[in-house]
Specification:
Helix content is 34%, strand content 16%. It is of the alpha/beta class and 219 residues long. It has a six-stranded parallel beta sheet with strand order 2-1-3-4-5-6, sandwiched between helices. Strand 1, helix 2 and strand 2 (60-61) form a beta-alpha-beta unit. The protein is globular and about 45 Å long. It comes from Kineococcus halophytocola.
Length: 219
């Protein structure tokens, strides 16, 4: 992935974060979906994906209590648990990006989530952490290092893996591939022919893969 492609990836993220308005994703006969963005992202980064899910008949929910998603995984997991419980969701599927997938996996083991959430579709999630986070100057990013105790515990816990579909772009500059092989044992892995960490979220090919995964988990 060359420099121009990396810059386009970040430019897409900035534009996505700045999009105004909030769509009405209520209603729909499909299973409910909860969107969980990545670190320093808002729900707007997942807006294209939310639109695609809602067009397919799914009511779509976000986590306003997540803020900028810079807190520890356990904090985000509790926000997800409270939202799922408050909305009284049943048979829901969580669709998450990057760190959001780690939050959702953490939450899958919590009372009030296990019996309400059918599974997780995680896009570009570093299930074993990312070595690029190890020396990052900001602490919220360093928590995503493979050395972080919370990441190591989560990677060793395989109990939720039968309910996880991990979707990856062909090349992701932020998430190394080899490190996650053991951390995803028992989960379903899907590769899409896309490059980047952020831009794939706006691509119909990714949307199709996510819709297929949501249908499989909800069934």
């Amino acid at each position: 992935m060359d420099l121009s492609a990396r810059l386009a990836d970040y430019a897409w993220l900035v534009r996505a974060q700045l999009r105004p308005g909030r769509p009405d994703w209520t209603g729909g006969a499909g299973c409910p979906v909860v969107l969980v963005p990545g670190i320093w992202e808002t729900w707007r980064v997942l807006r294209d994906l939310g639109d695609a899910l809602h067009r397919a008949g799914h009511p779509v929910h976000v986590l306003p209590g997540l803020g900028t998603n810079s807190a520890e995984l356990a904090v985000g997991a509790q926000v997800l648990r409270r939202t799922v419980t408050a909305l009284d969701l049943r048979g829901a599927v969580v669709v998450a990006h990057s760190k959001g997938g780690l939050i959702a996996k953490t939450a899958l083991g919590l009372p009030g989530v296990t019996d309400r959430v059918a599974g997780l579709v995680a896009v570009a999630t570093p299930f074993a952490g990312s070595r690029y986070a190890t020396w990052f100057p900001a602490r919220p990013v360093r928590r995503l290092s493979p050395r972080d105790p919370a990441i190591r515990r989560l990677a060793a816990d395989l109990s939720a893996h039968p309910r996880i579909v991990a979707i990856r772009p062909r090349f992701d500059p932020h998430v190394p591939r080899a490190a996650d092989a053991a951390a995803l044992a028992g989960a379903v892995e899907v590769e899409v022919p896309l490059e980047g960490h952020f831009r794939p979220l706006g691509d119909p090919r990714l949307h199709e893969a996510v819709l297929h995964a949501v249908a499989g988990l909800s069934a």
